[in-house]
Amino acid sequence: MDELTTESSALPLSPIKAPPNPELASVKRLLTLLDRTAKSSRTYGATNPVAQTFFQQLFEGLTAHLATYSKLAFLVQRSELYFGGEVVYRSEQESSNESVAFKLYSDGIRELTFLEGLPAKDLSYLLDSLWDSLDPDEENDDDIVTRLWSKNLSTITLVTAEEIAKVSTVGDVFALPVAGTMAASTSSLRDLLDQEQAKARKERELGPEGSSSTSQKASSGGAGRFQSGHIGYDVTEEELAALAKEIETESARDNTTYLLDMLTAILASEKSPAILAKLIDLWGNVIDSLTAQGKWSLLDSVLGLLHATAKIRPDLSESHTVQLAALLDNLARPERMRMIETYLNRTPGASMEGLPPVLLALTPRAVPALCALLATLEATAHQAIVMEALAILAKDQPDHVLRGLSDRRPRYVKNLLTILLKWNNPRFLDSIEKLVRYPDAQVRKEVVRAIGILRPNGNGIKLVSFVNDAEEPVRLAALKLLMSSQYKVPYSTWSPLVSTDSFMDRALSEKRAILLAMRATSGDEVIPHFESLLTERSWTNRKKKEELAMLAAEVLGRLATPAGLATLELGQKKGGNAVRQACSTALAQAQRQQLKQAAS
Fold first, then answer.
1. Beta partners for 86?
2. How many other CB atoms are found less than 10 A from the CB of residue 162?
3. What is the rounded distance in angstroms from the CA atom of residue 413 to the CA atom of residue 371?
4. Alpha-carbon distance values, 368 to 139, 374, 517 (Å)
5. What is the Cβ-side half-sphere exposure of residue 31, based on CA atoms within 13 angstroms?
6. Of 348 and 204, which is predicted with more confidence?
7. Phi and psi for 84 in degrees, rounded to 5?
8. Is residue 567's pLDDT more than 70?
9. Mean pLDDT of all residues in the chain?
10. What letter would DSSP give residue 540?
11. Which residues make Cβ contacts (< 8 Å) with residue 440, sequence separation at least 6?
């Protein structure tokens, strides 16, 4: 076929791209908000600020959409929602039993419609009904459809599978074909049902004569399924292919999710005490299996279900309630923690989604088991997740974390220090300061940092003990805090350190830092020592002592107090040539500093 061209040019016309459908885009955004609102409400509770923020965003977006388009109707399938013949929502395979589509579908809803003027309380009631979060003081044993109909909500309408069954005998009325339905001349499934019901009434009014043609039409197809007089639907090849694909998808469904759905249904409905007892024991095996396989999201769903069982089944006997409580209390038993350890250490790149809420579902009695798990995990990301759980569960019972500081595994001790610093409680400082001689230098350096955080000022004697550490980074970290002028240390604590011959062998920068720390923490108490450095004449280690005296002059000049200036003047008179020169330079620097301060 020749290409299309303009009348005035031989250039071919570019194919026109269909403009985006703003209504469809708006519907997709709303369903994303609906999904977030449902998940946050299930996770944190409907009164949580996060859940309320999502709900407000959903209500405002839905109100704006209805103001523009007057209504919003979508078809419901097991794991999808359809609008205008397109999928606008699809649940994840493993969490289909928690999705909005599944909840609506499982309660028999096949179309849900919102109308303009929808108030916030009606939308809130719909979501609470959907996730069984209504007021526990009210009687809420009915299904979602019954609850909504009992409220007679004028701005929310439903089409149920039962209604469809009354006007159709074709195939499975509980699995609607969606292809082309919303593209029909009618705007919703409700309109289609109204038309079918009107036709049925008209046929009943016409009597046997009027229905004869319909019977002939049904029998002409060679099948007797239309003998009831109801009008059937022609199924095209495309629709048959779509149905076949849907069946294939259903057949390929994850077996684990399918089995969990079955067990959930049994737990919710079984009346036999013996079977319920066996089922609760079986849930323990399910927890073990999901833990060993690292299926954290499914495990989180199972734990949430078991925690809610008492509400779902208020008719449980006392023995069943005790059995269920024992199951939940034993979540952190050692063999289960070893399952988690084995899976995480063997699968360092595995997804951690769902693991944090699983760990937080444990009770504070699980703290020893979590500490043991933290000590054996190899990957930093896995350790961080367990540390987050410990920071919450052990906050009011920190004894096991504090006892763990004596462990000889440096990585584990550093992680425990991180947890203690997150709590930021000075009462833990005594236990932390006991690590002053811990074998690992990185741990000792972390202890210095912890002291600076938990005791930012006051007594600095513990920090002075780190100045003799074997590793320079640890010594410098302690000196940095001591030079901040926030700590007090008597000169008697410094004296044994600076009086030894080994002090002379330290690096020049480190000796300067020590003298600055002494002056900052002991004040004028160190003046006699500084004076002896400036005026002493020695024939042994003369060069090193002269170097130390010059550093002392520099320190006194930087901290220009009256006593320090007087000591510099004395050194200018009685010191050696190099010392006198250093004292003169320090006095000049102090004078410039004083003039600058006076000018400012």
1. 83
2. 12
3. 11
4. 42, 10, 41
5. 25
6. 348
7. 60, 30
8. yes
9. 81
10. S
11. 410, 413
Burial degree of 151 (CB within 10 A; 0-12, 13-18, 19+): middle
**What type of residue sits at position 433?**
E
Quick one: 499 exposed, middle or buried, by C-beta within 10 A (0-12, 13-18, 19+)?
exposed
> Which pLDDT tens digit goes with each residue over 161-201?
887 777 654 444 444 444 444 444 345 677 777 777 677 67
Cα 129 to Cα 107, 136, 552, distances in angstroms? 11, 12, 78
Nearest to 105 by CA among 89, 118, 116: 89
Do residues 584 and 572 lie in contact, with contact meaning Cβ atoms separated by under 8 Å? Answer: yes
Q: Is 147 exposed, middle or buried (0-12, 13-18, 19+ CB in 10 A)?
A: buried
Q: What is the DSSP letter of 19?
A: P
C-alpha angle 287-293-299 in degrees, rounded to nearest 5? 40
**What residues contact residue 155 under an 8 Å CB cut-off, 6+ apart?**
114, 115, 116, 117, 118, 119, 122
89 in Cβ contact with 124 (< 8 Å): no
pLDDT at 369: 94
CB 465 within 8 A of CB 436: yes
Supply the pLDDT for residue 296.
93
Q: Given phi > 0 = left and psi -120 to 50 = alpha, else beta, which region is 339?
A: alpha
Half-sphere exposure of 236 (CA within 13 A, CB side): 8
Beta-sheet strands, E only, within 151-190: 156-160
Averaged pLDDT for residues 415-440: 94
Q: What is the DSSP code (8-state) at residue 253? A: S
Q: Which residues of 120-129 are buried (b: 16+ CB within 10 A; e: fewer)?
A: eebbbbbbbb
Q: How many residues does the chain have?
A: 600
- The edge-to-edge listing of strands for the beta sheet with 86-90 is 86-90, 80-83, 71-76, 109-115, 156-160
Query: Position of tokens 């003998």?
Result: 227
